[in-house]
Amino acid sequence: MCGMEDQPLGLTLLDRMCRAWELARERLIRATSALERAAVPYAVAGENAVAEWVARGDESAVRGTPHVDLQIRRSDFAAAASILESVGFLQCTALRGAVFTDGPDGSIRSGVYITWAGEYVQPGDPYPAADVTDAEMAKHFRVLRFEALVRMLLTANGRLEGMLARDVIDVGLLDATWLHRLPADLAARLQILLDTPDG
After folding, report:
1. Cα angle 166-169-173, degrees, rounded to a multiple of 5
2. ∠ CA 53-165-192 to the nearest 5 degrees?
3. How many domains, the chain?
4. Alpha-carbon Rg for the chain in angstroms
5. Has residue 167 been placed in a domain?
6. Which residues are paired to 114 by β-bridges?
7. Does residue 102 have a pLDDT over 90?
8. The model's pTM
């Protein structure tokens, strides 16, 4: 991993960071490849989707994340759960959607998080999550199309989502030309982000 022997004990801090990034990528590819082989519709969302789009603009600006965010239709969840479990993930309880840890000793922090495609993520959200059809095939997995991702980030409107939206703003993918493409409430949220680049 990262040009080093796989020796978990005694790793330097940099080696541990590199190993954590590689393990997170492996979880993402393992989960999505299994779903892809089984033809279960899904879309990569959240931080990994942002990373995929940011990398297209500037690889050096990609932010790492230990977990995987997937959107699945509720009607496909039983099939998806079986598939994820077949490649080593274990389901645990969650307040919304579902979370799968990477094996019995896996951490929720580095789990696979499922949200329901086409449904409201939080009570009071003005718009539902994108559907799995609003995705495109990237090199290794299906990722939310950019506009669907932007709408989800602005709909959630939290601190993390604001940081992620600024990531795509910083690499020039999201700018003032998008204001007329969005509903008025989401355009207003984008304008605030554009006006406050430092948060």
Report:
1. 140
2. 150
3. 1
4. 17
5. no
6. 70, 98
7. yes
8. 0.88
Distances (CA, A) of 101 to 35, 41, 111: 16, 21, 4
- The total number of residues shown for the chain amounts to 199
d(CA 151, CA 155): 6
Which two tokens mark 112?
């696979």
Q: Please return the burial class of 83, using the count of CB atoms within 10 Å of its CB with bins 0-12, 13-18 and 19+.
A: buried
Please give the pLDDT value at position 177.
Answer: 97
* Higher per-residue pLDDT: 166 or 12: 166
Rounded distance between C-alpha atoms, residue 150 and residue 157, angstroms: 11
Does residue 162 lie in a domain region? no
Query: Residue 30 maps to which CATH number?
Result: 3.30.460.40
Hey, what are 160's tokens?
């993390």
Which residues form the domain of 44? 13-145
% the chain with pLDDT above 90: 76
Q: Which residues pair with 102 in a beta bridge?
A: 89
Q: CB neighbours of 111 closer than 8 A, spacing ≥ 6?
A: 67, 68, 89, 92, 99, 100, 101, 102
In a domain, 80, yes or no: yes
Residue 104 in any domain: the answer is yes
Residues 129 and 118 sit within 8 Å (Cβ to Cβ): yes
